Amino acid sequence: MLNSVFLLVLVLAALMAASFVFARRKAKATVVAAGEGAGLIFHSQPGYYGWLAGIVSGLAALMALVAGANLSLNPWMTLTLMMVVGLAGSYFAASRVSAEFRARTYVEFFIKTLLVTCSLIAVFTTVGIILSLVFESFRFFQEVSFLDFLTGLQWSPQTAMRSDQVGQSGAFGAIPVFTGTFLIMAIAIVVAAPIGLLIAIYLSEYAEKRTRKIVKPVIEILAGVPTVVYGFFALMTVGPAIRALAETMGFSVPTQSAITAGLVMGIMIIPFVSSLSDDVINAVPQSMRDGSYALGATKSETMTKVVFAGALPGIIGALLLAVSRAIGETMIVVLAAGRAANLTGNPFEAVTTVTVQIVALLTGDQEFDSAKTLAAFALGLMLFIITLVLNFIALIIVRRYRARYE
Amino acid sequence: MPENNSIHASEYALKRLNKRHMRERRFKMAGLGAIFVAVFALIWLMSSILGSGYKAFYTHSMTMDIELTESLLDPQKLREPDKLRKGNFRLIIQNSLYARFPDVTDRKARRELFDIVSSSGAPNLIRQMVYQNPDLVGQTLTIKVPTSDHVDQLLKGNIDRNVKEERRKVSDRQIAWVDELIASGEIKAGFNTCFFFCADSQDAELAGIMGAFIGSLMTLFITALIAIPIGIGAAIWLDEFAPRNKLVDFIEININNLAAVPSIIFGVLGLAIFINFFGMPRSAPIVGGLVLGLRALPTVIIATRATLMAVPQSIRDGALSVGASHIQAVFHHKLPQAGPGILTGSIIAMAQALGETAPLLMVGMVAYLTEIPDGVTDPATVLPVQIFIWAGNAERAWIEKTSAAIILLLLVLFLINGFAIWLRNKLEKRW
Amino acid sequence: MSKIDSEISKIKFTCKDVRVAYSGKEALHGINMAIDDRGVTAFIGPSGCGKSSFLRVFNRMNDTIAGCTVTGEVYMDGQDIYAPSLDPVLLRARVGMVFQKPNPFPKSIYDNVAYGPRIHGLASNKAELDHIVEKSLQRAGLWEEVKDRLKDSGTGLSGGQQQRLVIARAIAVSPEVILMDEPASALDPIATARLEELIEELSQKYCIVIVTHSMAQAARISQRTAFFHMGDLVEYGLTTNIFTNPADPRTQDYITGRTG
Fold first, then answer.
1. How far apart are CA B429 and CA B334, in angstroms?
2. Residue B22 domain boundaries
3. What burial class does residue A286 get, using C-beta atoms within 10 Å of its C-beta: 0-12 exposed, 13-18 middle, 19+ buried?
4. Of A93, A110, A361, C120, which alpha carbon lies 20 to 30 A from C55's?
5. C52: pLDDT strictly greater than 50
6. Is CATH 3.40.50.300 the right assignment for the domain spanning A171-404?
7. How many whole angstroms from its chain centre is CA C69?
């Protein structure tokens, strides 16, 4: 399959290159034939006639390819058809070479269309996400009621292997999954918000330029570490450390727990919070600080009472983005939070999250019509909606905030 | 000192001022503390991974005299490679070990003796040699075979010799043999080539990252092919040609939101659309690359737009004023100016894609594969997913492997990001 | 340095060889002058002459600019304000400042004025604070306009009102000196006129030092004027003398509009 794709690309490229050279040469010859100074009369430079021929022949050949595939011609027939149609296209384009013909306009129209298509792909991605999630979720909610899903207190998605098994029908109450998600998110934010903010404040207001130049990239390294590495770190180092610490204090904590996952996730989000807050804090004009210093305020008073107050909307926006990131984070929780769907608010217990359940339900071989698999799409839809709403609010807040100081 | 009757110089005010300065110092200390916490976390992370991972870069192997007994491997003297491959090479290794330790006769002891070397690695090594060169049968070779992971761990000091025998993975007898082989120089430590050049394996001593590395390269290739041209195209359109209307506003908001959609959702998209709907192969780099390409797309768009916006409008206007078309002005003048920034942004987006795990789990790139993939439609896995798979094994040898794979992944990411930053500093223009 | 007859009033600031440098580049070359305790002293001169830098010497606002160094001696009521033992926070409580562009905090009008008294602990209860806020707003001539909307944001006021709010904010801390850095440059003529009236009133009670671009303004409101040129103090004396009978040809050129 790969070879045939490669061959196709090669043929197309050769065809287009040949058309380009052919048409450009013809255009040049036409200019020369028209006599001295004719270059100025021509609407477009010879190269554009070449480009146009290349594009036309390429498009024609592609159409031939689609037609060939639809008529289920054999590969060699299709290839021949592509060549013939492509060359015809190129000949047609070259035949239009004349002083009045606006080759550049057509080429540029083609380029613009290509650029628009690029932008639309981003939109199609969103549409694709929504369609796939909504469609499969719809199938899920035909089997499990939406209300049970949203309000049920028990999550055990194992369905019956055989129809005669009793009591194995699976429970799809998502409350324990959501509590787990929010518990871990809350721990992560409690860790990341103050640390990230204080780092941003220290670096922008107190640190000398040299310190800032060293510390900032070091903190940023934390942002570049892949999440699976954090997950492994949580599982192998932080989890056991917390358990050991708890043992010395006389109570027992499992290696996989909400606190482990939340703590490590908090570390992961620190650079995210600090760099967003840094932007926000720097957006507060220097004149605010000057006004405060001139009244005899200390730096910390200026920061907490003037700058922070001014930056508050922006900081809230940044924190919302951090929350959304924490909710959608997968690898740390998959490795460090556990899979048991405990309905608990105790951070020292194992909990599960939306993303963990999606991974658990969708990895490995699965049938696409079982409620178990479809449940993952329902969870995915919830996750998508929650993060979308959070991001949307955050973006609006941040945008308004920026406008305020511009 | 002249008299100072300002209310700010009263005793009360001065006392209060002291307190305010204390608060100021505390606040500053809190900031320093926060930096300390973050840096400490980074050091903890790095040192814990380096500490458990560096030992995977060397391994122990045993030099053995191996008699390729003809009567056992090729009694009919056919020397046919395909038949030879099915021979009992395990027995060959065992015989060689029994010959080395002739006084070990007990069945259980002999089994323990065989456990010193890699139980599938050692026979496979000779199998491969004989398959490629059937004439070796009948000769006696001196070759190096990998030791079992328990012996390797013992020699790396990860198995405590003082623990009771029942509670450790190597027996007292094995320890004695290994010590003897070490003393005689038959077991030696050396660079762990297999870790770099082997694919995954069930045996820790034979598992390597090559398969995942090639998988990562293929996936990233597809990702770059999707995200970079489309991302740059979209950014150019939005920055230069897009009309200012509600629809374009919507596209921009959509792109910003897409950048913040959890990456696992992209995996779900890939599963539902590419695999289930279009019927593309599971576990293949082509699908993984497509998914990561869409994931990286908004990142590339946002980075490119930021660079394009930083190019002064005057450059474009200058080109327009000498009669260039809008497209010419953008492609001939603005884009080259923004080139370095776009390049840096794209490289950083690719580095992010290289570290991505969750979406690839969704499209089945978690398969256990002992072969190095040949093409983008073959089943494959990638480095972060390999790390995830290995992280599920709690044994010491696997923790070591996982950490070592992480070290390599971080190194690669560090180099890529470092290169991007170097490039930016070198080529960046300021207006 | 011009001779100042100190019989009229006490001296507030004495400067000896004050130099200000930004990242090693000197912007003011050794200024010696004394500033009176009451009344308005105006600093005039072309852009970049160093008058604003010099103004920021008196409340050590230059400390907040990275790379800015101040050398020489500045005494306020005989006390060296650049002495290591001196607390700039305390100094700034005694020397208020009003900036070129009005910079009310993004808080309510009330909180803007109450900010200073709060951080300095000038009020022990809400009633006292209310009193300080009201008095300051009255002194700044803003009370009547805002008394019904003290909870509204300070940034919602007009430019002239904002500048008076900022003055009220400075007065609320009970300073001895108010520095003004081209306070009217962002205001329309009517607001400027109101501000000038206010400055005249305030000069009865505070030492006011004002940097201004407008010579007419200096002539209208100040008792003394200092003319700066390229980092030097060229001429300093009674405003009437400077404007009618300048001693230095550079001053002459500037006030007659030939330079500047």
1. 13
2. 7-54
3. exposed
4. C120
5. yes
6. no
7. 20
Inter-chain residue contact C103 with A287, CB threshold 8 Å: yes
Query: Apex CA B240: angle with CA B237 and CA B245, to 5°?
Result: 80
| Residue C217: domain span | 11-101+177-255
**DSSP assignment string, A39-68:** HHHSSS-HHHHHHHHHHHHHHHHHHHHHHH
Closest among B302, B404, B402, B286 to B352, alpha carbons compared: B302
Q: Which segment of B366-380, C26-40, C143-157 scores lowest on mean pLDDT?
A: B366-380
Which ipTM was obtained for this model? 0.90
Q: Which of residues 313-352 of B touch A (CB under 8 A)?
A: 325-327, 351
Question: For strand C68-76 and strand C79-80, is the pairing parallel, antiparallel, or unpaired?
Answer: antiparallel
pLDDT digits (tens, 9 = 90+) for B95-147: 888 888 888 888 888 888 888 888 888 888 888 888 888 888 888 888 888 88
B373-423 pLDDT per residue, tens: 887 888 888 999 999 999 888 788 888 899 999 999 999 999 999 998 888
- Is B262 in the A-facing interface, judged by CB distances under 8 Å? yes
B258 and A111 in contact by Cβ < 8 A? no
Q: Is residue B1 part of a domain?
A: no
Of C78, C79, C120, the CB nearest to B8: C120
Indicate whether B214 and B194 sit together in one domain. no
Q: What is the pLDDT of residues C82-105, one digit of tens each?
A: 988 888 888 999 999 999 889 999
DSSP H or E run through C235: strand C232-238
Does C218 fall in a domain? Answer: yes
Residues of C in contact with B27 (CB under 8 A): none
Q: What's the length of chain C?
A: 260
B277-326: per-residue pLDDT in tens?
A: 888 888 889 999 999 999 999 999 999 998 888 888 888 888 787 777 78
Task: Report how far residue A12's alpha carbon sits from residue A15's, in angstroms, rounded to the nearest whole number.
Answer: 5
Domain ranges (residues) in chain A: 2-122, 171-404
Number of domains in chain B: 3
Whether B242 and chain A come into contact, CB under 8 Å, resolves to: yes
CATH code at B373?
Answer: 1.10.3720.10
